[in-house]
Amino acid sequence: MDKEWTKLPWFSQEYINGVTRFLDFAFTKGSPQGGELLCPCAKCKNIYWKTRDIIRDHIIAKGFLDGYDVWVHHGEKLQRSMEIGDGMEDQDGSHDDIPGLLHDIYGERAEAHGVGEGPNDEARTFYSLIKEAEQELYPGCKDFSSLSFRIRLYLLKCLHGWSNTSFTALLELLKEAMPDLNIPESFYKTKAMISGLGLDYKKIDACPNDCMLFWKEHEKDNSFTICEASRWKQNAATEGCESEQPKNDCRVPAKVLRHFPLIPRLQRLFMCSKTAESMRWHEEERSKDGKLRHPADGKAWKDFDELHPDFSSESRNVRLGLTSDGFNPFRTMSLSHSTWPVLMMVYNTPPWLSMKPEYTMLSLLIPGPKSPGNDIDVYLQPLIEELKELWESGIETYDSSMNQTFQMRAALLWTISDYPAYAMLSGWSTKGKLACACCKSNTNSLYLKHSHKMCYMDHHTFLPRTHSWRDDVKSFNGEEEHRTAPSMLNGAEILELLKDFNNEFGKKKKKTKDHIKARYDLQEMGIREKPHPREIGGGRSEFAKACFSMTPHEKSIFCGVIKAAKLPDGTASNISKCVQVGDRKISGYKSHDAHFMLHYLLQIAIRSTMPKEVATPLIRLGSFFRSLCQKVIQVEDLDYLENEIA
Asked: What is the distance between the terminal CA atoms of the chain, rounded to a whole angstrom?
C-alpha cells in the first residue's frame, strides 16, 4: 500500500483519507481481537489495543508512528534476513535483531583487539553467542532465533514478577507441548545464558545492623567484627537441603546488597554506534547560544571543565549524577518497609534521552526493612570504588562509532535528592541545632520550650543588605537583622573538616509537627499576636482561626475546581480521578501531577478560597517554579527569579 500519506500534515484531507484506507486494510487483513487492534499512533506505539474509531482519532490527533513502514501488526508480511552482522534493522522495531546487536557489542571490538592472533575472552563470548543466535527456535522458524526467544521470555519474567519455579514450569510445558522447541529446560540455564551478555549483578552479604559488608578481606567471615552479629539468619531454611551437602550451602544471609557494576554498563553505551554518537552530543551538537537547555550550559559544568581541562578535553568522558530515595516495594502503606535504590544518570546525552529509563542505571539496591540512614556509606563502598577507578585511571573502552579504543573516565558531578536523603548522602544532619546545610556551624537555631523542637528564624540574613524585611521586627523574631549571609564552604574546606573524622557505622540494638503548643511559643517570644491564645476563664483558652484554614464549603470549591479542570492530552495523568469532592480530599496523584498542579491549577483554585495574604504568595510561588522548570531559560532570568522568590 501507498504509505506516503503518513508523512503529510495531519489536518490534510489526503492524510485523513490515508488513515481510512489503512483502517480498511488493517481490519480486513489483520487479526482483530474483540474488534480491537494495536494502535499505531505516535503515543500508543503498537502497545495498546483500541477500537477502530479510537485508533482513527489517535492517528489524526497524534500522528502515525514514525518508522513503522511495514505494518506487521496490521496484516502485512515482513521479509526478514537473518544474516549475521549484515547491519539490517527491523523496519518497525517489533522483532529483535539479536545478531546485529551482538555484532555491535562484541564483533567490532573483537576485531580491534586482534582476534586473528587468537581469540580473547570477549571474542570467545562473541563466538558462543553468535552460535546461539544462528540456531533456529524450531525447524523452519524465520522470525525468532533460539537466543532472541529466550531473551524475550526472560524479559517477560522480569516485567511480570514470575517466580523462578513458575518460569521453569513454563519451559517444561512448552518443551512437552512442542518437543522440537530449542529452549533450555530450567530457569537457571536460561539465566546462565543471559549473564553471558555481561550485564549481571553481584550479591554482597551485609550486616543486619548496617555496620559493614562481607566484602574483600571479610568475604569469607561468618560474623561481623564490629557488632559481632551473625552473617546468617537464625533458624533459616535448612529444610530441603540434602544431608551430604556442606552446611554453609543451607544458610541464608541476614541481609544482601545487590551491586550492579557501573563500569560494564558505561562501556556498553559505547559498543552500540548510535548511543556512542549520543555520548558526544553535549560537545558536538548542543546549541551554544548562552541559554540554559542542558546541564552542560550550567555554571557547575563549565567551572568543572575549567578546573579539570585534561578531563574535559575528551568529550566521551562521562558526566554522572546520583540519586537515591526509599520506597516501599510491597505496594501497601500498611506495611512499613524501606528499600533504597541508588541510581546513576548519564548527562552526556541529549535531554530527551538522559532521563529515559534505559539511560538510568541502577547501581545499588540496598535492602530494607529500615532506611540505612547515615550508614548508607557502608553500602556505597562498591560504587565509590568504581567511581574512583573511573576518575583516577579510567577504563579501556571501545567506541564503535569511531572504531577506536580510548581510555574512558567518569566524574560524579552532583547528587539529586530530597532533604532527608540529602542528609544521608552528604553526611551533614539536616535536623537539630545545626540543621542548615548552608550555614553549617553558624546556624542560628532556637529551642521551643512548649513544642519541644528546634526552629530557625534567621533566614532573612540571605536578603540584600537594603531589603526592608531586615528591619521588620514584627513579622520575624522581634529583632532587626544586620548580619551578612554566611559564606558557603568549598570542597577543600569540607575535606579539612573531615580529615580527622572517624564515624562508627551500624545501629546498636536499642517527627515533629506544628500543634496547639506552638501558639504558646509565639506568645513567649512576643511576636505575631494574632495567633496567641486568649484566656476565656475557667482555665480555658480560645484560639484564632489560622489564616490558611478552609471551611468545609471552601474545601468543596477547591476540590471542585481541580475536579473540573480540562487538561491538554499528555500533560498530566487524569487528576480528576484523584479528587473526592464529597469527602473533600485529593489523594493518590503522582509527583509529576503535583508539579503540574503547583504550576497551573493551584493558582486558580485558591483565588476564591484563600485570603489575599495567603493566595498571593502561593500564586507567585507557583509562577516561580513554572518559570524555573521551562525547557529553555535565559541566564539573566535567574537573577530576577532569585530576587522574586524572596
From this structure: 62
